[in-house]
Write a structure and sequence with these properties.
The protein has about 250 residues and is α+β, with helices and mostly antiparallel strands. The longest helix is centred in the middle third of the chain and has 19 residues. It has a domain of about 110 residues: 4'-phosphopantetheinyl transferase domain (Ribosomal Protein L22, Chain A), CATH 3.90.470. The strands form 4 sheets. Strands 4-5-1-11 form a 4-stranded mixed β-sheet, with helices on one face.
Length: about 250
């Protein structure tokens, strides 16, 4: 079985490919093939997961990012090396010739996502909307006042979707900024009424809101996704979601 991809895909500034992988029906042979792609530290991390769902999410996420990046550069999937910034966001460290590729990852029960771009700041978040969470209890601790007011004004049948709409947007933004939860969650908020979500910030979250574009999508009946993109000035981002499996990417290179 080959483990090298052809690097045939090309990216233009502002173009974001989003690769989605379902976690249902991952066979033991597929899992074994994915494990071969991981570095030794990644394999050690995989071993430390005690919950099967978390182990599977981690394994497929690491396999997906490696096989996906190899679609854009003639680099063996196992050869990619990564480092994290001070806030934990990963980036490519080797090979140096491919460090202009930007990626961001997210996983949840049933789904893994990998966003790839060049010359853009990108962040992605996927959430399983059926998971057990008390949205009424959690909302005050994660939403800005305007978001909390809008959430509470929603009808009971709409509150859960409203919660995950705001939550995925906020997660995608802080991940794109590369600063994680060091950005106070109540220091920025989103307005959902227009054609696309609009970012608003306070002086505790200094930024230029107009440089950001946000994309929301429900890839399945059980999942919600948000993508945050800051493209070069004058470039309007475009988002291109597609379904794939790491195994199919391995097979293409065989």
């Amino acid at each position: 079985m080959g483990l090298t991809n052809t690097g045939s895909l090309q990216l233009q500034a502002g173009h974001v490919d989003v690769w989605l992988t379902s976690l249902s029906n991952v066979s033991s042979s597929e899992a074994s093939a994915y494990l071969l792609l991981l570095s030794e530290p990644e394999q050690a991390q995989w071993q430390r997961f005690l919950v099967n769902d978390a182990r599977l999410q981690y394994l497929v996420t690491r396999a997906l990012v490696r096989t996906t990046l190899s679609r854009y550069a003639d680099v063996p999937a196992r050869a990619w090396q990564f480092e994290t910034n001070a806030y934990g966001r990963p980036h490519i460290s080797q090979p140096l010739a491919s460090c202009n590729l930007r990626f961001n990852l997210s996983n949840t029960t049933g789904l893994v996502a990998c966003a790839v771009a060049i010359d853009c700041e990108i962040g992605i978040d996927v959430e399983n909307t059926t998971r057990t969470v008390d949205t009424d209890e959690l909302a005050p601790s994660v939403f800005a006042p305007a978001e909390l007011a809008d959430f509470r004004e929603a009808g009971l049948e709409d509150r859960r979707d409203r919660f995950f709409s705001y939550w995925t947007l906020k997660e995608s933004y802080i991940k794109a900024r590369g600063m994680g939860l060091s950005l106070p969650l109540d220091a920025f908020w989103f307005e959902l009424g227009g054609a696309s979500p609009l970012l608003c910030v306070t002086d505790r979250c200094p930024d230029i809101p107009g440089r950001w574009r946000f994309y929301q999508h429900a890839p399945t009946d059980e999942h919600m996704m948000a993508v945050a993109v800051a493209a070069p000035q004058g470039v309007e981002p475009s988002i291109h979601p597609r379904w794939v499996t790491p195994m199919s990417l391995i097979a293409e290179s065989a």
